[in-house]
Amino acid sequence: MAGADSRDRTGGGPLLQRLGPPVAVFAVTRVLVLLCVFRLIVLPGVDPASDVTVLYHSWFEVMRGGSFPLHDVTWQYPPAAALPMLAPALLPFLDYTSAFIWLACAADVVGFGLLLRAGRDGAQGSRGMAGAWVWVLGAAMIGPTVYARYDLQVTVVAMAALLAAARHPRVSGALAGFGAMLKVWPVLLLVGTPPGRAGRRMWAAAGIAVAAIALFFTTIMPGGFAFLTFQSDRGTEVESLGSLVFHLARRFGHWHGGKVLLNYGSVEFLGPYVSVVSHLALALTAIAFGWLLLWRLKARTHTPATMCDAAFTAILLFTTTSRVISPQYMIWLVGLAAVCMTLRASVQAFPAVLVLVATAVTGAEFPVLFHDVVTSSSMGVAVLTLRNGLLVAASLIACRNLWRASVSRAPHIPDAPQAEPVPPLRRRPSAEAPHR
């Protein structure tokens, strides 16, 4: 019986043999990421940790005094974002940047552990270690940026929310609400909530979490929602889908009077026609939202993977159509793709592979080739076109797969049991029957 106890529930090989390879690759890749982010291995291009060293640290100093950065337009986050910014104070023996990086690494370990646990839970119809492998490889492909932005912590919260949905709907909803107060986008996790009581519990728990967090920060720190006014004058970020218009125009000398500047915390195009492209991006986002609403109204089939598949599709759509596609946005997609891949019922395997390829391209684009992107060189435009093209393809295929799985496919209705045929009655001869 000892041999049987050492096997996982899915009936595969010994548990240690299944966990060993992803754990080993995780350890090796994360050591390399740490060496890069601490600049012990120096990659060409910009310093990926500059946002932590400059922006996050400056916000930390302001918030430590009891207020949000009310007059800093680069602060564009909900109030709970103060928590990861202030968290380095828990490690006073380290400087701010080092403490932030190590806490991000700890969050990475937590996310990996959640996926390992989900991968060996055969009762949930898992794909084994596929989800863990997506996280191991995808997060490593992003490179040092993965530990130099707080998006990793937000993604781990979102992953935990989705993984808890089947057994603990209230916990799942509360985590989604908490994630939304960290960086807004996790509210889209709720687009595919199951029908009935479980879905209502998720929405109620999310609403309570959002209200409680908003009340807490409004009470103790003024300016928690000032970020809502810091978005109106944004341009088109140089890595977004819409930016390709200006990159190509610059290459062929057809865009005059425009420039590339650091604006609202990112490098953006500013000048003629930028507002037109930005409004088109917002229109595409509105169309994406309309499609999701239509899907929600039309969906007839709900599997254990539908909520994860819908969340992945929603984040893909809103990332691809955004005016800003910063490298750290790929962390969101990798995390949700990894959760989808823990479930055999998921229909998003191919879009998840496309996201992994797009993530690898992004890891090359930033920080290594970022100067080429900013200057619209041939290499920069080619890399950006490939990455954004992969995201567009992944978005369209994810929408098609989700629609086919939950709208086009009729729900399975078990056949009604059929009664046993009744044999014909036979008349038994009666002793009292009259003789002819």
Automatic annotation (TrEMBL):
Region of interest: Disordered: 414-436
GO CC, alphabetical: plasma membrane
Membrane-spanning residues: 21-42, 99-118, 130-150, 170-191, 203-228, 270-294, 306-323, 352-370
Entry's localization field: Cell membrane
Membrane-topology annotation of the record: Multi-pass membrane protein
InterPro entries, A to Z: GT87, UCP010361
Primary localization: membrane
Gene Ontology MF term list: hexosyltransferase activity
Keywords assigned: Cell membrane, Membrane, Transferase, Transmembrane, Transmembrane helix
Pfam family, one: GT87
Family the UniProt entry places it in: Belongs to the glycosyltransferase 87 family.
Protein's recorded name: DUF2029 domain-containing protein
